[in-house]
Design brief:
This protein is an alpha+beta fold. Helix content is 57%, strand content 15%.
Length: 466
Amino acid sequence: MSIRAKLAWTFILLLIFGITAISSYSILFIRNYLLNEGEQQILNDTEWLSITIENLRQDEQFETNLNEAARTSGYRLSIYDEEGILFASVPYHEDVVAPGRLETTLRGSIRQNSEVRLMDLPESDELSAYVALDGENNPAHYLQVSIYKDQIYEPIKTIRWIIYTGMFISMGLVILVSVLFSRYISRPIIQLESAARDIAGGNVDRTLDLDRNDEFGTLAKSLNKMADRLRADNEELKRLYERQSQFFADITHEIRNPLHTISGSLEMLQIKKLDEKKRDQYLDTAFRQTERISRLFKDLVTLQRYDSDSYFIERKVFDMKSVLNDVEQLYGSRAKEKGISLVFDDKSVSVYADPNKIEQVLENLISNAIKYTNEGKIEVKLTKSEDELLVEVIDTGIGISEDHLDRLFDRFYRTDKARSRDKGGTGLGLAVVKSILNAHNSDIYVESTQGKGSRFWFYLQIQNQV
């Protein structure tokens, strides 16, 4: 059974039960009210009837007057003499016979109590009132005033018809209102259920437009937010999947090329009468390609640790001057061989960072600068502010096209793939730089002009911020 049907039947049954209960209680209340009013009325009427009958003379008009009193009052009047024997009963009905004699105990009770005595027996169809008479104009000593209870309940037939008619009309309205109300209540539930099923099935483009300010509207907004989040997550997963696929393809390509070169060099070295100069050349080629693969895996390990290791960096206070001295010793001779001037700032500045990782950043930046600078100089500058240290690597190299700047720090991205591989690059150096600096809550920035050089810079936290 659908939720709409359940709601409709629930409202219908509850309201019908309520209407039926109220109607039944109303009829019962009115019935008791009419009986109480009838009892009070018969007591009052018996008093004036007793006075009337006491004053009737026993002559030829006695029965006529007695009938007129019965007709006027609407009661059946039974008159008994001093011995309790019935001598008159009006109006006359063949199927209604008054008791021929009043019991002695009843007569005594009536005489003892001067007031009107009411008798309402549950098993009797009549309501009766008794009173003692003291008149001297006729032999009447006891008067019984009776009326059928059905006569008292006569108005309830009309009332019952009115109540039942109203009840059935109300039931019809209840059914109509219940169906409409259940549709109003269930419509957003059905829409929410349908939307949730579609979203669970992968249709994250499904949205709900419920212009409501109640809980249904809030739930619809929550479902829309969930769909938006899932849609964004799916887009991100798709992007990550594409990047992962490209990443593995790049790794395969990066490893395959040096392996082919090494394999070719080894084949040439197997030639027995190979010239010594050629042999040294092939050995050098194999060695450089082996170093290239080693650097590739070193960079991959660094990136993998950045992606998964919460202890990727180990911060401590150190002097940037010592790191620059180490880098200068490592790359000074290489720059000198190319005729490039390598200038380091000799300031002593204490920073709070991972010295090994910062040295790796500078090595990558200076190594790239040496590769792509044919003349001029490479300068490493330190500029201290109140809470940060600005580190700049500036070269006078070939520069980078503006088209490549947005993707310059992507993994395996090269501005010139053929030339980068010739120079032994892995395509991961700048990605490693960005990952290390991001782990330090910093970032790497670049500006470059083709033919004039490039400037890379980043910021580090100085010691007084520890």
